[in-house]
UniProtKB/TrEMBL annotation:
Family in the record: Belongs to the ABC transporter superfamily.
Record-level Gene Ontology MF annotations: ATP binding; ATP hydrolysis activity
Name of the protein this chain belongs to: ABC-2 type transport system ATP-binding protein
Keywords annotated in UniProt: ATP-binding, Nucleotide-binding, Transport
CDD domains in UniProt: ABC_DR_subfamily_A
Length: 309
C-alpha cells in the first residue's frame, strides 16, 4: 500500500524547547489516523509541519511522494487542511466562500461548480448554500471548514480538533463525516478526546512531551483494553478451589461472600466453562462481566510510564 504521508524523524525546536522530538509515521489511503495527546503535547506543532505552515528543525515530510520542503506546491496540491479554528469569512454566504476557496485552490474554472456541489453534498451544506456563514450554527461552520479542505479532492485531509465546541448531535454528525471521508482519502485527526479516536479512527498515535509513545491500530488498542478479568456474582458462595482448576484461570480474588474476580489468560477465555461450572454446582449465577480497561486508563498509564523514564 502506497503511503500518502511519510514523516521521518520530525523535530521542531522553539528556542531551546523541543516541542516535537524525532517523530516518524506513515499514512495510507483508507486510513483515519487519530493523533492523540494532552494539551501542549506537540499535536498542533506536528500538524502545522505536515501542512507546510511550519518548517521542521530536522526531518523530512513527503506527501503523495512529493517532498514538502523541496516541492511545496506539488505536495500541497494533495493536501486539505482544517485548522482548529475554521478560517471562515462570515460576511459571505456558504456558496460565495466556497467559490473563493475553489479559486485559491486553483481548481479549473469549468470544474468549480461541480467541485462546490460535491463538497456541499458530502458535508450536508446544500440546504444552507445561500445563507450567510455568520448566521449558521457552530456545527455548520465546522462543516464549511471541512468542505473547504476537501474542495479540490485531495488525497490527504488533516483535521485539527474538528469537534471542539460542538454539541453531542453535531459531534456525532462530524464523526460520521470523518469516517466517510476515510474511505476515499487518508485522514489525520488531531484530538485530545479519547472517544473521538474510538469512534472515528482506524489507527491511533499518542504523543507526549513531543515524543510518540504509541503507534497502534484501534483494533489492537481494543485488545489491550481487555484485562483478562471477569467479575462474578453468585447467589450462594462459590467453591474457589473448583473454579481455580478450570483451564485458563490464573488466580481468583474474593471481593465479598458471593462476589469474586477471576483473572485469566487473555488468549484462553474460560468464561463459558466458568458459567457451566457455577450452573452445574447450583451456586446461582447472577452476573459474569468482563472487566476492561478504558482507553483513558491506557492513555494515563502510557503517559505516566513515559514521564517516569
Amino acid at each position: 500500500m502506497t503511503a500518502l504521508i511519510e514523516a521521518e524523524h520530525l523535530t521542531r525546536y522553539y528556542g531551546k524547547h523541543c516541542a516535537v522530538n524525532d517523530v516518524s509515521f506513515a499514512l495510507a489511503k483508507g486510513e483515519v489516523l487519530g493523533f492523540l495527546g494532552a494539551n501542549g503535547a506537540g499535536k498542533t506543532t506536528t500538524m502545522q509541519m505536515l501542512c507546510g505552515n511550519l518548517a521542521p528543525s530536522a526531518g523530512q515530510i513527503k506527501i503523495n511522494g512529493f517532498d514538502l520542503l523541496d516541492q511545496p506546491k506539488a505536495a500541497k496540491l494533495s493536501l486539505g487542511y482544517l485548522p482548529d479554528t475554521p478560517p471562515l469569512y462570515k460576511e459571505l454566504t456558504v456558496q460565495e466562500f466556497l467559490l473563493y476557496c475553489a479559486r485559491l485552490h486553483g481548481i479549473a474554472k469549468n470544474s468549480i461548480p461541480d467541485s462546490i456541489k460535491r463538497a456541499q453534498e458530502r458535508c450536508g451544506l446544500t440546504e444552507v448554500a445561500d445563507r450567510l456563514i455568520a448566521n449558521l450554527s457552530k456545527g455548520f461552520q465546522q462543516r464549511i471548514g471541512i468542505a473547504q479542505a476537501i474542495l479540490h479532492n485531495p488525497e490527504v485531509i488533516v483535521l485539527d480538533e474538528p469537534t471542539v465546541g460542538l454539541d453531542p448531535i453535531q459531534i456525532r454528525e462530524i464523526r460520521a463525516l470523518i469516517r466517510e471521508l476515510g474511505q476515499d482519502h487518508g485522514v489525520i485527526l488531531s484530538t485530545h478526546r479519547l472517544t473521538e479516536v474510538q469512534e472515528s479512527c482506524s489507527h491511533v498515535q499518542i504523543i507526549d512531551q513531543g515524543q510518540l509513545i504509541l503507534n497502534e491500530t484501534v483494533a489492537g488498542l481494543n485488545r489491550q483494553m481487555d484485562t483478562g478479568t471477569l467479575q462474578v456474582l453468585t447467589r450462594l458462595p462459590s467453591d474457589i478451589n473448583k473454579l481455580s482448576a478450570i483451564p485458563g484461570v490464573n488466580s481468583i480474588e474474593s471481593i465479598s461472600a458471593n462476589r469474586i474476580r477471576i483473572h485469566h489468560s487473555v488468549t484462553a477465555n474460560p468464561a463459558e466453562h466458568i458459567a457451566e461450572q457455577i450452573i452445574a454446582a447450583g451456586w446461582g449465577l447472577q452476573e459474569l462481566t468482563p472487566v476492561k480497561r478504558s482507553m483513558e486508563d491506557i492513555f494515563i498509564s502510557l503517559t505516566k510510564e513515559h514521564r517516569e523514564l
